[in-house]
Write a structure and sequence with these properties.
Number of domains: 2
Number of strands: 14
CATH architecture of the largest domain: Beta Complex
Radius of gyration: 25 Å
Strand content: 5-15%
CATH superfamily of the largest domain: SET domain
CATH topology of the largest domain: Beta-clip-like
Order of helices and strands: EEHHEEHEEEEHHHEEEEEEHHHHHHHHH
Distance between the termini: 55 Å
Length: 449
């Protein structure tokens, strides 16, 4: 039975709280909810099922509507607050308030918000930011479902959601509108703000039939000022346990340079990226990678991104590290040349944000290639190049895992202590291949120490 309820949790001074609610909403009885027209269901089902991010290949909009019950809530994080409109089952699974501490940001912000030519406001580095540096952490100001299963105008729901905020937060949220003086009487302004500024954040959902979609729409007052680029210099990560976003530099950002993030998957071909941006956010991408003057430059960029995407797919033709170590027929530089080329393409396309490889890595695909190069040079007993690349691997990990420095310093001072040292030389020289297994990643080596 789709319905709208009010939160009634009591406020606690010890943890982030739920402020008292305003006027209660009237529950929508199941008898008053008509089945959506078949053509509407078909269109929405296709859109949701085909969206790889949502991971809902069997989504059924008609059943989705009949199983929804929503809750408004206003959460207080001290200097921040968040107005939410969530499925009741999702609301019940929100993390414990004690985990939702106020965002930890430096007293002196390392960014400014100011005019960006042709883009409205943007975020700019106040000083040089290094690769891996945290730019900010923040809670969302509003969160709503990706798809709302109620037969009432979205504008009315969003208006109610926005107006539950305090006056300062509401004013800052409304300032995200493209209009310099949005008419508060025109409810469509709320929809435009959600469409243009919301990021996809995942929340826990109940393990029941026709559960809510895990991906929700969240607006972040500061991060929403980051403009889009298909070669972004920053990335954002959502932590549902702390209900917060972290914005991090993925390469060095010069003082005064604009801080950008990807709004859509940056590995897509150019035409697909531009169409997606236009459809989802309503603007034409004008970043460097979408404004080449020559058609051949667009083609070269598309081929580069396709190559980077295929590098981690099942149809990649490169042998595994173990197979390369044990097969003399493979050239010594086969993997080395391939990994260096990928790093070159990442730099040329500005895709340090890519994270397509297996498992987790603090430096994403860039780090995976660095790891692989260090391992290849180690397997070849190339001391000089091994030290160059293992030092780069160490430097990339130190911001997140400083405790690993001891292992890296050991390998730098005594390369022969590296677990795969000389593997290819030993096997291709007639040695035993039985030991060449189980240590195909530096992460595994570190776990063994």
């Amino acid at each position: 039975m789709p319905s709208v309820q009010q939160s009634t949790r009591r406020r606690s001074s010890a943890t982030p709280s739920t402020k008292s609610s305003l006027k209660s909403k009237v529950a929508l009885e199941s008898s008053s909810v008509e089945r959506p027209p078949l053509d509407v269901c078909a269109e929405i089902n296709h859109r949701i099922r085909s969206n790889e991010t949502l991971r809902a290949p069997r989504f059924d909009f008609a059943h989705h509507v009949r199983h929804r019950s929503y809750v408004f809530r206003l959460m207080d994080f001290g200097e921040e607050e968040c107005s939410t409109f969530l499925d009741a089952g999702v609301d019940a699974l929100l993390p414990d308030r004690s985990r939702m501490a106020s965002s930890s940001n430096p007293l002196k912000p390392n960014f400014d918000i100011r005019e960006s030519k042709g883009k409205g406001l943007g975020m700019f580095a106040r000083r040089e930011l290094y690769d891996g540096e945290v730019i900010l952490q923040e809670h969302p100001v509003v969160v709503s479902p990706y798809l709302i299963g109620l037969s009432m105008p979205l504008a009315d729901i969003y208006a109610d959601l926005f107006k539950r905020l305090s006056r300062p937060a509401y004013s800052e949220l409304m300032a995200l509108s493209k209009s310099s003086c949005p008419s508060l009487k025109d409810a469509s302004v709320y929809e435009s703000i959600m469409r243009a500024n919301a990021l996809g954040v995942a929340l826990n959902v109940p393990n029941v039939d026709h559960a809510e979609l895990a991906i929700h729409r969240g607006i972040f007052l500061k991060t929403s000022r980051c403009n889009h680029s298909c070669g972004p210099n920053a990335k954002w990560d959502w932590d549902m346990n702390t209900f917060s976003l972290t914005l991090t530099a993925v390469r060095t950002i010069a003082k005064g340079q604009e801080i950008t993030i990807p709004y859509i998957a940056p590995d897509l071909p150019g035409a697909a990226r531009r169409a997606s941006i236009q459809q989802q956010y309503g603007f034409e991408c004008q970043c460097y990678h979408c404004t080449y003057k020559l058609e051949e430059d667009f083609n070269h960029s598309d081929m580069a991104r396709e190559s980077l995407r295929r590098a981690w797919s099942s149809d990649c033709k490169l042998p595994s590290f173990e197979k390369w170590c044990t097969e003399p027929a493979y050239p010594d530089d086969l993997l080395i040349n391939a990994y260096k080329r990928s790093l070159h393409l990442i730099e040329a396309e500005g895709l340090e944000v890519l994270d397509l490889g297996p498992g987790e890595h603090p430096e994403r695909d860039v780090g995976r290639y660095k790891d692989a190069l260090a391992m290849c040079y180690g397997a070849l007993e190339d001391t000089e190049n091994f030290r160059i690349w293992i030092a780069r691997v160490r430097d990339g990990r130190m911001t997140k895992k400083p405790t690993q420095s001891l292992a890296f310093n050991k390998w730098l001072s005594n390369p022969s202590s590296f677990p795969v040292w000389g593997w290819r030389r030993a096997v291709c020289g007639g040695g035993d291949a039985n030991g060449i297994h189980g240590l195909s990643a530096i992460e595994k080596m570190l776990d063994c120490i």
